[in-house]
């Protein structure tokens, strides 16, 4: 819709009003060259399009255009080029552009339809041009004002949405203390059920000293905090309020009061404190007996400074447990330094762990560099993948652990260190000791308090709990609204063997949440590796059923002894059953002999 059409009714009223007191007809056209309003003969053709080539058409194509005066449309060059010329009842005209945002959006015209009107128009030419321009300007400012009101309406709606979206109650008042805005939360906190705008704020908070607030005397940077009592019927409660002045050119024109119930604030504070007091082990999820016991034991051990060895397959959470021990210990304010022994090249191990002095080797930093042990002084060092530490270095490590002293590479002074050691490995260190791949003395030094974290497949009761935990985490992170898993998906998760343990489970759930398009995770959203592990295996259990084992054993025996009569006899003997039982089982299990 064109700008002028939006004001059609109003414009027609203007046209009627002017035409009633003037002896000319009026026509207002928009930028589609359509007659939006008109009087006299133009009234009959309102809504029709004049077409290209007319004077309005010329005016709208140029944003700088000025008024036109046409004395005689019959002989005027412009009019001769107009497509509307034949039907046009106009003999003479004053026409002015109506502008909006720098563009011509239409025209205002005073028209003569008979000779007398034409003569009058010519006689009053200059006055009428001024008049026509003034009316066009008036219409321009009406359009601008309408647009401004529209924008203000949008702003007001946005403002309302913003203040309604905050949890605090917000009330805005003017300089007289009358409420101009009140948000949803405020009406809820104050238990109001009617519109309160216009009411004076004192009717809610009689003790509020508006004069002092507006006089600025108690305000710091236009802001203050205060407690206010609020009474509603028999109920009375206190609110913690923030009051902010609203100023225009340094003059106070109102204030906003935002608040929360004191009770709610207390609850919030308790919640924050409670969260703060959460045990570091609470982050480790699991309701299996194994995890519950591990958490209990590690919690106790955390209070000591004894060395801990954590064994478990990759991804079982060894790192998480190690950090929790540190965070529950007296050393929690000091550093927790994690070292992956498998990731450090052999020739750098010593300088990485014990540091080096300036000039210790080519490329050594000026001033030297402290090693991980020094950085962990008074804190905890987590030696992950300890089984990958080369034998020759194990001697050096043992010495540092025993002496509680170290020397930097290239250094002569020994440095005292007070470090708690937590080591971890996915390897069988005892077996490595037997095979001569790990030093016995170091093993005993580390194995002071050993823990073993069972793989996920051995604590199935944790699988769904962890799956839901990660589902929530990633749904939230990825902004999705996924409610849970279908029965089929749950079965797959429960029966998969999880060689990568919780790390693999976490990654799988992240993947599923990423690609899911419904609000339940179905089997099809699980990663290929999981689905493939079940393909060709109707039974989803990783533990084969006894029937399955029996069937497979019979097939194996037949493969070994053959399917001839003699072969079957031997197979039955090897299986410890009679021939007729074997025949019955071949039938039961549908084993076809080729
Ligand atoms: N019980 C648990 N609850 C919640 N998240 C867990 C749990 N166990 C492990 N995780 C998560 O699984 C991932 C792997 O854990 P972590 O790195 O501690 O395992 P790891 O045994 O040290 O692995 P690696 O031996 O490969 O270093 C991490 O993202 C961790 O946050």
From TrEMBL:
Q: Matching InterPro entries, A to Z?
A: AAA+_ATPase, AAA_lid_NorR, GAF-like_dom_sf, Homeodomain-like_sf, HTH_Fis, P-loop_NTPase, PAS, PAS-like_dom_sf
Keywords in UniProt for this one? ATP-binding, DNA-binding, Nucleotide-binding, Transcription, Transcription regulation
Q: Which organism is it from?
A: Acetohalobium arabaticum (strain ATCC 49924 / DSM 5501 / Z-7288)
GO biological process terms held by the UniProt record: regulation of DNA-templated transcription
- Pfam families reported in the protein's UniProt record: AAA_lid_14 (PF25601), HTH_8 (PF02954), PAS_8 (PF13188), Sigma54_activat (PF00158), SpoVT_C (PF15714)
Q: Mind telling me which CDD domains this protein's record contains?
A: AAA, PAS
One GO MF term attached to the UniProt entry: sequence-specific DNA binding
- Domain of life assignment: Bacteria
Residue ranges constituting the Sigma-54 factor interaction domain according to the UniProt record: 284-514
What name has this protein been given in UniProt? PAS modulated sigma54 specific transcriptional regulator, Fis family
- PROSITE patterns the record matches: SIGMA54_INTERACT_1 (PS00675), SIGMA54_INTERACT_2 (PS00676), SIGMA54_INTERACT_3 (PS00688), SIGMA54_INTERACT_4 (PS50045)
